[in-house]
Design a protein that fits this description.
Blueprint: E1 4-11, H1 17-27, H2 34-37, H3 47-52, E2 59-65, E3 68-74, H4 82-88, E4 94-100, H5 107-118, E5 122-128, H6 137-150, H7 155-158, E6 162-166, E7 171-173, H8 185-194, E8 207-216, E9 220-229, E10 237-241, E11 247-251
Parallel strand pairs: 1-3, 1-4, 4-5, 5-6
Antiparallel strand pairs: 2-3, 6-7, 8-9, 10-11
């Protein structure tokens, strides 16, 4: 458990979430097919997302940094898909809150930050797009602090760690000076330093929260979720409990680990 971090990336639409995830994947040389790595946005794989140029469905990716498995959740930024954000935040122990260095906090920034604070998630603020010629970094930082206070953040949350980034260029740093940034590594360092590892007891009975179910033509129903206690393995007998308390027996036929 100590070698796992679960982090969601949240922001207003077009503030650079998916571009940042792509930079993190490329930085760690995550194994991706050539047809994928050459696309402009790796995580926006759905045809509708490519057509509209926005993230609609949450995406999961795992990278390894300093022997720590970092599970990353890219969330939608458009207000129409706020319910998807609420659902997938239950998978995370902390969030990267991206804020555009020119626009500052926007309506959806308020919504996603409110959800994160209500769930008591650790927030790392990433001031993104600092490469813009009209960036207003000090203004944006002050407005972000005001938003935390306005949402009732406690002292520990209000004094949030800050990383400055240009996700388009794959650069980040603790100072807003592009000339001294070399890569995206400072974001990984911040995740390891500030995001807590997941809690849970592997010896207890399995408790897993399913956040989404999709249909695969080859694998059948594919469930994505988070294990809070216990462990899971292929061919294990499971009991699915629906919201109305109905229990259904099932068997796990395949497994791809994501969150711990």
């Amino acid at each position: 458990m100590q070698n796992i971090r679960n982090v969601a990336i949240i922001a207003h639409v077009d503030h650079g979430k998916t571009t940042l995830v792509d930079a993190l994947l490329k930085q760690t040389q995550t194994k991706l097919g050539k047809d994928v790595i050459n696309t402009s946005l790796i995580m926006d794989s759905n045809e509708l997302e490519k057509e509209r140029g926005i993230t609609i469905f949450s995406k999961n990716a795992s990278v390894t940094y300093k022997d720590v498995k970092i599970n990353i959740i890219d969330t939608p930024g458009h207000a129409d898909f706020g319910g998807e954000v609420e659902r997938v935040l239950k998978l995370a122990d902390g969030v990267l809150l991206l804020v555009d260095a020119k626009e500052g906090p926007m309506p959806q920034t308020r919504f996603v930050l409110k959800q994160a604070l209500q769930m008591d998630l650790k927030v790392i603020v990433v001031i993104n797009k600092v490469d813009k010629s009209d960036a207003r970094i000090d203004y944006v930082l002050n407005k972000t602090f005001d938003l935390f206070i306005d949402l009732g953040a406690d002292e520990a949350s209000a004094y949030f760690p800050i990383i400055y980034a240009s996700s388009k260029n794959g650069l980040a740093g603790e100072e807003p000076d592009l000339s001294i940034m070399t890569d995206i590594t400072p974001i990984f360092e911040a995740i390891l330093k500030y995001i807590p590892p997941p809690s849970g007891d592997e010896t207890k009975p399995l408790q897993m929260l399913i956040t989404s179910v999709a249909l695969d033509n080859f694998k059948g129903k594919v469930a994505t979720g988070r294990i809070f206690d216990g462990s899971i393995k292929i061919a294990q007998d499971l009991i699915h409990i629906s919201r109305d308390g109905i229990k259904t027996k099932c068997k796990l036929t395949s497994l791809m680990t994501f969150t711990g």
